[in-house]
């Protein structure tokens, strides 16, 4: 649809014109920095940064009902730069011109309502938002589209050149970073650090296929992160982990899409997010806060952050009810099927603490909750979800397990409607399903496969068949007819089929 065909009252807003004035602001000491260079932590106190728009007040001058119409009509445009996360350009990257925006098909992932069986199990209505249907098959693409669009903007302005983008990863970040960096070749190259033997083969293949320099090192993600931080502090590289505040901006689009899917009515809504490096829950909270402050939504949804008991530093922090006594203590993680969330010292924890306090304050009540779940429940709920029409990854299973645990605690009830973040495509973590079906989980996982959830292939070769087809040796005539009839009869017997 062409801009001139839109209603007159929103026509001037359809193509973004807001002139943002973005700055980095330290969430510790409050110092502000120009965005003309890539910064990740405060130069004075070392705390992490968030990006703020000093002109945000101008966004409030447009009534919320007009913003809602702008976003709804903007979805009909065919302009590539506005088809992804930058549909919400004014709230994500208003300094980035549309010609600098990188769009590879990210954002606007489907929210699939659970079937009657699962909703009866949960005793409430819920959806899986399938962020595994982003280009690199994970939610990380939202943040990379933002971070690399900004780098592209700096390249086009001549402020940077020959950029080496680098990240530590448990798999999904590296796949996304390598994909988006490859789009900007030869101006941007990428390098990724992975914990040796701690990334699935599917995830490892992605940055390799995108041409990134891939380094595996001993230890876990937290060790990779320390090395990457040392590189970013001492060498001219662009850090692409969620320490990068531009990543957080892009991931806020998840919140905006949820608001839009419910026609901006978020009363009695619940958003369930698995926690790894804590960047995603930070972004989700910040996104809802922005829409609330701009009057686009009139209420803030409940947020559930979920962690496995094998990697639960955020959950442990909030176990202490007295805020004055809370102390963040990193944990030594154990093996987890929620592999991307196997992080004991999340870099965005200071952002979480800062934004959770603000979110609860503006809500007028506790509105962010943290839930711990067992590894067993993560796998069991993932498999049950996927037996009922979903493509949830283990982290989607973690979200569903968290929703069930929250219901038992009385945090949610049947009046609520929940959206569960399935952060990646189930194919990325197919190895865990294979381990479950093959009953091959090492003891450290604390998972005992349930027989009713195990599914394995059945080899059908009737014993009385002496001739069967093989590569290069097809059957024909009577031998083929006999093979087809015998195999069909065998399968029909196993399935207890009745003849027509």
Beta strands, count: 13
Oligomeric status: single chain
Helicity level, as a percent range? 25-40%
Low-confidence stretches: none
Radius of gyration: 25 Å
Distance between the termini: 52 Å
Strand count, sense and barrel status of the largest sheet are: 6 strands, mixed
Number of domains: 3
Q: Shape, please?
A: globular
Arithmetic mean of pLDDT: 95
As a percent range, the share of strand residues is 5-15%
Kindly report the CATH topology of the largest domain. Rossmann fold
CATH class of the largest domain: Alpha Beta
User: Reading side by side through the largest sheet, how are the strands ordered?
Assistant: 4-5-13-10-11-12
Structure notes:
- The mean pLDDT is 95.
- 38% of the residues lie in helices and 14% in strands.
- Helix 7 runs parallel beside helix 8, helix 10 packs across helix 12 and helix 11 crosses helix 12.
- The protein has three domains: 223 residues, Rossmann fold (3-Layer(aba) Sandwich), CATH 3.40.50; 109 residues, Rossmann fold; 44 residues, no CATH class.
- The termini are far apart.
- It is α/β, with parallel strands linked by helices and 500 residues long.
- The chain is built from 18 helices and 13 strands.
- The longest helix has 19 residues.
- A six-stranded mixed β-sheet has the order 4-5-13-10-11-12, with helices on both faces.
- Helix 12 links the parallel strand 10 and strand 11.
